[in-house]
Structure formats: C-alpha cells, structure tokens
Amino acid sequence: MSNSLIDTAPDFNQPIAVLKHCHDRIRKQLQTLQNLLGHLPQHGADTAAQKAAEAVLKYFDTAAPMHHGDEEQDLMPMLQATARGADAALLAAVVPGILADHERMDAEWTILKSQLDKIANGVSTPLSVDDVNRFSEAYAAHMLTEETQIAPMAKRLFTDEQMELLGQAMQRRRGIVPTSAQTLADLRLDYGLASLSEEDVLANPIAQFSKWFDEALNAQVAEANAMSVATVDAEGKPTSRIVLIKQYDERGFTWYTNYDSQKGQQLAVNPNAALLFFWSEVERQVRIEGRVEKTSPEESDKYFYSRPVKSQLAALASKQSAPIGSRAQMEENYEAVAQAQGEQPKRPDYWGGYRLVPERIEFWQGRRSRFHDRIVYVRQPDGTWLKQRLQP
Ligand SMILES: Cc1cc2nc3c(=O)[nH]c(=O)nc-3n(C[C@H](O)[C@H](O)[C@H](O)COP(=O)(O)O)c2cc1C
Ligand SMILES: Cc1ncc(COP(=O)(O)O)c(C=O)c1O
After folding, report:
1. Backbone angles phi, psi at 374, to 5 degrees
2. Which of 160, 282, 351, 375 is the most buried (most CB within 10 A)?
3. Which residues in 236-255 are b (16+ Cβ under 10 Å) and which e?
C-alpha cells in the first residue's frame, strides 16, 4: 500500500501511472532547463549550473529513450491490437504524429545536448533560448496528447493481464529482474490481446492472411515479413531457416534465394515445405504448408533487378551455404564480381523465387492460460477450403 502523502514513483503494476510519472519528471527537467537559461548569463557554468546540466543530460540520455521505447514498442502496439471502432480510428489519427514527435524531439535533443555537455564540463557557453523553447514546446504538446487521448484509452481498454504484460515489458526495458530469481522454466507470457472465432475469419485464407499481415504491419511487429521455411532432405531430415516473404496472392507465398543453397537442393528432391510466421507483438502465429515451385524467370528478373545493386552483387558473389575459408575471401569474391559486372549485374540462373502453393493454412491467436484459438483451412480436391477449429 503506498502512502499517498509521500511522492513516490508508482509500481510497474500500474504502468500507465508510471508513464504519467515519467511525464512529471520530464516537466521537472524542462523547468530545470528554464532555470538554467536564467542562471547562466549571471553565473556562467558554475557548480550549480554544472549539476543542473548533468541532471538534464542524465534524464534525456537514458530515461527519456526508455519512455519512448515503452510507448513505441509496447503501449501503442498493444493498444492498436486491442482498439476497435472509434478508438481504432483515433489511434490511426494520433499515433503517426506521436511517432513523428519522438523523432523530432530526438533531433532537438541532439542540438541541446552538445550545449549542455559543455556546461556540465564547466565551460561557460550560452544555452540557446530558441533551442530550449523548441524542445520544451515539442514535449509539452506531445505529453498533453498522450495524457488526454492515449492514457485514458489504455486505462479503459486494457484488461488486468494486459496491464501486467505492459508493466513487465517496461521493467525488462529497464533491466529490472523480478526479485525472486526467475528460472528459465518459469519464463512465460500469458496471452490475452484478442480472440479468433469461426465468425471472425474470412472465407478465403489468403484474404485472412492479408488481413492479419496488414494488422501485424500496423502494430509495428518487428520484421513481420520474416518467416521460417522448413524443408526436408532426401532422408526426410528437416531443416529450417528465416527468409523474407516478397509476395503473396491466390497462387501462393513467394521468397527469393539461391537455388543451389541447402534449401534449394532439398526442395529439388522434395518440394514439400512449411512456412511459419510468429508475430509476438500481436500474439499470433500463422502456419502454412504445401508444395514449392520456382517462380518464372520473368518474375525472378523483376524482383532481382528491384534490389539494391550491392545486394545483387552479393547474390552473385555468394555460393550460398557452401563453406569458405575466411571473410577476406568473401570480400575478394565480391570485388571480383563487382569488377566484372559493373553497375548492372545480370541475374544468375541459380538465383530466383520459390512460391509455396498452400494446402493448409492455420491461424493461431494466443489466449489466456494456454487455451488458444486455432482455425485451420485445408484445401479440398475441388479447390475450395474446408475450415476447422483445432484444440489448443
Ligand atoms: C531476417 C532474415 C531474413 C532472411 N532472408 C533471406 C531471404 O529472403 N533469402 C535467403 O536466401 N536467405 C535469407 N536469410 C538467410 C537464411 O536464413 C539462410 O541463412 C540462407 O538462406 C541459407 O539457408 P540454407 O543453407 O538453408 O539454404 C535471411 C535471414 C534472416 C535472419
Ligand atoms: C542471403 C539473403 N538473400 C536475400 C534476402 C532478402 O533480402 P532483400 O529484401 O534484400 O531481397 C536476405 C535477407 O536477409 C538474405 O539474407
């Protein structure tokens, strides 16, 4: 129980209150900056000024980036995954501005920091009133938006479990480990952002994938386009690796690679493969199974020539998955290819796309206490899709 007469920081089990507390600390630092503006002309970089500059530097170099991280990586994605209707519309309108503010405030901070560094080191240098005011005004408007639009929405929409998850994420960002030594076996997240029912999913699994993919992008899932591709060798032994999806449509899911690589050799013998997406931020997994075919040379050309030239050259310089003696040898190979090919390298026949033609697509939504939702689509001989719920 906290004593309401004493001003202490709130616990991480009240993450929105912690964020508000951060705002109050930011306001104090901004006031210190104003005080410095008044102090410096008379006293120069005396001990008091040095201490004030140090305090501001410490806060905006360490605490402020973590505060922005809390919002960008946890609070906003969680809200975006939870909000519906008018709340979702409000977020769509407000969040891009908040992210842009963070970038602007970072840039403004860089300008102020170089001045404060000198003052902290006892160098009597002027502090620019304009720079301080721009920085302060950017923060003031930004914090007001968050306190009036974002925080009340989070308090209204988040369940106790979501608040707990947010608080845990914020603690992890600050390197705070739970007091009781946590063992590996105890590491677990409980999911609860959303649900998935037979009525929620679209009739066509590609359309459903498209919906979830867009939602993952909107929720700023890190590398939402990264997927695992599992293949098997001639003896049926599986291997898997991450690649980037480059296209999907009714025909299937496409990525690009070296046809002579390990996966290429395995797919030549056995075209069965499985794709996997895990979008942790939205607590979703998509599993896709089917047979793989090569994209047409025209499609491969189109993608190859759309890549940065250096990546084209790297593809030419690499016998993917073959051993090599050293990094230096690789660099030599790259230089030789760059010399030979110039600015317009030609796509080699051994580099191109694979398209997995799906036979089975499963959508998994994490739920509380491991009682998850799973809906699978299985392609029928007549080309239609049979939809079933699977047990968690
Ligand atoms: C995020 C990420 C994306 C990747 N994307 C690709 C890709 O699109 N194509 C590719 O050939 N390798 C990609 N790789 C490298 C593969 O994971 C792998 O190392 C390489 O394809 C060789 O695999 P193999 O020996 O099984 O054929 C990526 C790796 C990571 C971590
Ligand atoms: C070896 C290799 N090839 C291709 C890709 C796909 O990248 P890009 O988007 O540049 O085509 C990657 C991505 O990491 C890669 O590592």
Report:
1. -135, 125
2. 282
3. eeeeeeebebbbbeeebbbb
Angle at 42 between CA 37 and CA 46, to 5 degrees: 85
Q: Is 363 known as a binding-site position?
A: no
Instruction: Give all domains of the chain, ordered by start, each with its CATH number.
Output: 15-173 (1.20.120.520), 205-390 (2.30.110.10)
Q: How far is the CA of 298 from the centre of ligand 1 (A)?
A: 22
Residue numbers annotated as active site: 370
The token pair at 301 is 């050309």
Does this model's pTM top 0.80? My answer is no
Residue 26 in marked binding region: no
In contact, 157 and 25? CB cutoff 8 Å? no
Ligand 2 pocket, mutate which of 244, 260, 263, 354 (most atoms under 8 A from CB): 244
379 CA to centre of ligand 1 in angstroms: 28
Pocket test for ligand 1, best of 228, 242, 277, 356 (most atoms within 8 A of CB): 242
- What is the spatial distance between Cα 96 and Cα 98, in angstroms, rounded to a whole number? 5
Within the chain, residue ranges assigned H as helices are 15-43, 47-58, 64-69, 76-82, 85-120, 129-145, 151-157, 160-173, 205-218, 262-269, 297-306, 309-317, 327-341
Question: Closest Cα to atom 6, ligand 2: which residue?
Answer: 244
Using one digit for the tens of pLDDT, what is the confidence trace for 164-215?
999 989 998 998 876 555 567 778 889 999 999 999 999 999 999 999 999 9
Distance 353 CA to ligand 2 centre (A): 12
How confident is the model over 367-391, as pLDDT tens digits? 999 999 999 999 999 999 999 999 9
Residue 195's Cα: distance from chain center in Å?
Answer: 21
**What pLDDT does residue 181 have?**
53
Query: Which ligand does the CA of 254 lie closest to?
Result: 1
The reply, when asked if residue 263 is annotated as ligand binding, is yes
Å from CA of 277 to ligand 1 middle: 14
Which residues, including other chains, have CB under 8 Å from residue 70's CB and lie 6 or more apart? 15, 19, 166, 169, 170, 173
Instruction: Give, in order, the Cα–Cα distances in Å from 235 to each of 187, 238, 269.
Output: 36, 9, 10
Mean pLDDT over all residues of the chain? Answer: 94
CA distances from 369 to 13, 180, 188, 196 (A): 19, 22, 10, 15
Q: Indicate which atom in ligand 2 lies nearest the CA of residue 244.
A: 6
